[in-house]
UniProtKB/TrEMBL annotation, chain A:
Gene encoding the protein: msmE_2
Lineage: Bacteria, Bacillati, Actinomycetota, Actinomycetes, Micrococcales
Signal peptide: 1-24
Listed SUPFAM superfamilies: Periplasmic binding protein-like II
UniProt keyword Signal, yes or no: yes
Record's protein name: Multiple sugar-binding protein
Ranges in coiled-coil conformation: none
Domain of life: Bacteria
Keyword terms: Cell membrane, Lipoprotein, Membrane, Palmitate, Signal
Automatic annotation (TrEMBL), chain B:
Protein name: Trehalose transport system permease protein SugB
Keyword Membrane carried by entry: yes
Topological relation to the membrane, as annotated: Multi-pass membrane protein
Organism: Occultella aeris
Lineage: Bacteria, Bacillati, Actinomycetota, Actinomycetes, Micrococcales
Transmembrane segments: 12-35, 72-96, 108-130, 142-162, 183-205, 241-262
Gene Ontology biological-process annotations: transmembrane transport
Length: 437, 277
């Protein structure tokens, strides 16, 4: 009996092993023919990114017949961040990938994982702000893909015309405009959409250029743990949000409204102001094509008009992981250089809806750009722009959006919220191993 | 007498009403949004579309990324069918042996089964293992992962159910001259049908709906499963709600059909093994 039991066990083990072997066998295969260099390009799977990537690949392959590019996609957001790190850690990153610049790039540990591109021809054409956010002390790692966007107040132009209002340059002027809109009663002065919590952060994040105008070293000192949100000038962003809530300027359903609701209200004139990233223009031109001309942009005003600056988000970039070698590396570098060529710029302007000026000398905005673009461009030409904090400091606490929802809903006073956020970032700074924390 | 019947009907009516609200309204919302134009859909309300775009949206969703959804349906079907089959066969065998034959290995096996439920799957080490044995980014690798994650739960169900089958049946079969293989496949396995249906349905829905598994262990556009295709239509700032909901609508149908057909067996199987441990 015991012999038979042994035999039985053995047959199960053998059967399993055979199954594994059979399955492994049918998975092998693949590879390509010798002449064609095959590279893979990874981007985020939303429609805009994919359409642009497909157009870019098509244009690239037409000019470089010896290379064939395969497109791969993955979700963005937190899930995407984890996936990027996983792929780099396991050596499975495709030959070229598209990802955020600034602090999220720093989190990928570029010195260790990416190929230095500072010897490429296009490296000198990047504007300084852009070069900074794709570099470390040891090298330049990315080529920008897409345009800048501003974190600013998007406003409904017809309402301004109807009520004879001027674009405000200081906070008092902004509040006076809100008062006038509220009195007229046709529209909500300020749109807030805390159903999508990330939209609540704009009062604070979009105010950062104003902070820098008052204290040029703020970002560096913040990283060194010498500046705090609980103190002026940075506290002002939280206080402004509280003041706007207390004045009753928000839409009634601000607590549950979604980002898409906010854009509908803005585009159709149900609301006058929406502090938002100008990348939202793409959404307006998709869903409200007739109202594109009705939406303008101005910088979130500082208390003093002299300090008002436009806070700018720099575009994402493309990178090459150092697992890419040989012919693939050479082809990947050609692919990146192609994005800065005339054809590459054409794809960036036609398919990726620009939301602000480009960050290289290689590309220019089209002449018939929407007002959201021309408004932003005006700030660039005047030189009154400044990058957002997330591009200057690796510190960004995970709970800012929850805190700004509380401040904007009157649950927590501004000073409290700012202090809580200072605590929130502490853990993250310690995780990053920054000095002074 | 009459009031009693009336009351019974009333309670029944209320129950029906509640289930309609809880189950059918979300489904109606999905269907209606899937039939709208992009503009109308972005309002996200329950209303009839002013113009029906059902067919256009369907075609557009299908064609996105070179018919990715079609490939995804094929992948998901293969993944679900094979991994669930594997789970059922393996778990039935383990559950049977574990329940019928006491040995000093049993505590260890029980511990491992429980460990399979308790220990969270770690992503990077799992990928390393798959890379070493050459199964990473392949369908068989993904099948094994799904089967492994589901196995513990299935073994517990099978073991509990086997205890309800009288031992005398086994003994009678052995006396009649059945070998171990014949005993298991011809005598015991047919008796496990109720719990098998439960396992099949529960695990099929699990595997079919799994998002993070394929996301991490099965990258590549050719390998996409249906849940991953949803991300083609959403991002932080730009959501195409009509296409997203059309995609959701298509993906919801297979599990829904399964539930409609197997509803009775699911409940029966769940409770039949639940009393005896």
């Amino acid at each position: 009996m015991s012999m038979r039991q042994g035999a039985r066990k053995g047959s199960v083990v053998l059967g399993t092993a055979a199954l594994v072997a059979a399955m492994a066998a049918c998975s092998s295969g693949g590879g390509g023919d010798g002449d064609q260099i095959e590279i893979t390009f990874l981007t985020q799977s939303d429609t805009d990114n994919v359409a642009a990537a497909e157009a870019l690949i098509e244009a690239f392959e037409a000019e470089n017949t010896d290379v064939s590019v395969t497109l791969e996609t993955q979700p963005g957001g937190t899930e995407g961040d984890n996936l990027m790190k996983t792929k780099l850690a396991t050596g499975e990153m495709p030959d070229v990938f598209h990802y955020n610049s600034g602090s999220l790039l720093q989190a990928l540990n570029p010195d260790q994982n990416l190929v230095d591109l500072s010897d490429q021809e296009w490296a000198d054409t990047l504007i300084e702000d852009m070069a900074n956010v794709v570099s470390t002390d040891n090298g330049l790692y990315g080529v920008p893909w897409g345009s800048t966007q501003a974190g600013a107040v998007m406003y409904n132009k017809p309402i301004y015309e109807e009520l004879g209002l001027e674009v405000p340059t200081d906070w008092a002027g902004f509040m006076a405009n809100n008062e006038a809109i509220l009195a007229a009663g046709t529209a909500v002065p300020i749109i807030q959409t805390y159903g999508d919590t990330w939209t609540s952060q704009l009062f604070v994040l979009g105010d950062f250029a104003n902070v820098t105008a008052q204290d040029p070293d703020w970002a560096a000192e913040y990283t060194a743990h010498n500046r705090f949100y609980a103190d002026d000038p940075a506290l002002q962003g939280f206080e402004n949000q509280q003041a706007a809530y207390e004045a009753g300027f928000f839409n009634e359903d601000f607590a549950s409204a979604l980002f898409d609701d906010g854009l509908r209200m803005l585009a159709t004139g149900e609301g006058a102001h929406y502090p938002m990233l100008t990348g939202a223009g793409a959404n307006i031109s998709l869903n409200y094509p007739d109202n594109v001309e009705d939406v303008g942009v101005f910088a979130l005003p500082a208390q003093d008009a002299a300090d008002t600056r436009l806070t700018v988000w720099l575009p994402n970039a493309m990178y090459i992981p150092n697992t890419t070698e040989g012919d693939q590396l050479e082809a990947a570098q050609r692919f990146l250089a192609f994005t800065q060529s005339e054809e590459g710029c054409r794809v960036q302007t036609e398919i990726l809806t620009p939301s602000g000026p480009f960050t290289t000398d290689a590309c220019e905005l089209p002449e018939d750009a929407a007002p959201t673009l021309t408004d932003v461009q005006a700030y660039f030409e005047a030189g009154t722009t400044f990058p957002a904090l997330e591009f200057l400091s690796p510190i960004k606490g995970p709970n800012l959006e929850q805190i700004t929802v509380e401040v904007g809903s009157g649950i927590r006073p501004a000073a409290d919220g700012a202090a809580l956020y200072d605590e929130d970032v502490e853990k993250q700074a310690q995780q990053l191993g920054l000095e002074g924390w | 007498m009459k009031t009693k019947a009336l009351r019974r009907n009333l309670t029944g009516g209320v129950a029906v009403l509640i289930s309609v609200v809880v189950f059918l309204v979300p489904f109606a919302f999905i269907f209606l949004t899937a039939a709208k134009s992009a503009q109308e859909a972005s309002a996200l309300d329950v209303s009839l579309p002013t113009e029906w775009f059902l067919w256009q949206n369907l075609v557009e969703v299908m064609q996105t990324r070179d018919y990715m959804l079609v490939r995804a349906f094929v992948n998901s079907t293969v993944l679900t069918v094979v991994s669930v089959t594997l789970m059922v066969v393996m778990a039935a065998m383990v559950g049977y042996v574990l329940q019928r034959r006491a040995s000093r290995w049993n505590p260890l096996v029980n511990f491992l089964v429980l460990a399979g439920l308790i220990v969270p799957p770690a992503v990077v080490p799992t990928i390393w293992v798959l890379q070493t044995i050459g199964l990473f980014k392949t369908m068989p690798g993904m099948i094994f992962i799904e089967a492994t994650f589901g196995l513990s739960f299935c073994i517990l169900l099978f073991r509990a159910f086997v205890s309800t089958i009288p031992k005398e049946l086994d003994e009678a079969a052995i006396i009649d001259g059945a070998g171990p293989v014949r005993l298991f496949f011809q005598v015991v396995l047919p008796l496990l049908r109720p719990v098998m249906v439960t396992v099949v349905v529960v695990q099929a829905v699990n595997v079919f709906n799994d998002f993070t598994g394929p996301l991490y262990f099965l990258p590549g556009s050719d390998n996409a499963t249906v849940q991953l295709t949803l991300y083609n239509f959403q991002s932080q700032t730009l959501n195409q709600w009509n296409l997203l909901f059309m995609s959701i609508f298509l993906i919801t149908i297979p599990p829904l059909v399964m539930y409609i057909f197997f509803n009775r067996q699911i409940v029966a199987g769940m409770t039949s093994g639940a009393v005896k441990g």
